[in-house]
Amino acid sequence: MSDELSPAIQRAAAQFDAKYADTDDPWRYRTSWYESRKRAMTLAALPRSRYGRAFEPGCANGELSAALATRCDHLLCADFAANAVAIASRRLAEFEHVEVQRMAVPQQWPGGSFDLIVISEFAYYLKKSQCRTLAQQTCASLDANDGAIVCCHWRHGAHDCCLDADSVDQLFSQAARANALHLATRVQDADFLLSVWTTHSAGVAEREPIYSATG
Prior knowledge:
alpha/beta, 7 helices, 7-stranded mixed sheet, Rossmann fold, globular
């Protein structure tokens, strides 16, 4: 990890690294029905069937990444925990178009724009100012022509969370509105909040009509 990162961030990364010491799936991404269901709902909420350049920070061990890889031409995955990066790299090795990097967002951020950015169940670990910066960076990095931001936040909290799901959602909603993004999908599940913001206002059916104009 870069020396420019604060000692607090380096300590946090070490704590997450420790979670992978005894298992490569500490949150049961592979075996939990909650995770499988949430993953399916997240993928179903994507407005397009395929994306050109996608970014997934906080990728953990790469289970959601593997599903996203089937929908993207290029996918950049990142995590600030070295063990997570190593595990995700092995998990995603079969996908030549997927890149895994060690990166601590929002302090570190990739260049260029993306037509899909997925923020899934990690933003609440950040302090409010950091989460606000993350939301702003996410919106600023979105492809202006046809981009989508997918945000998913666990609603039950944890002892090491700095924010709750509603607070994170509010910060992303504020940033999205400030960047003239449109809310395409909103799911208020008992366990998580799922929102999709897009650069265009047209829905899936409007962009790809179900019925012909002459029907």
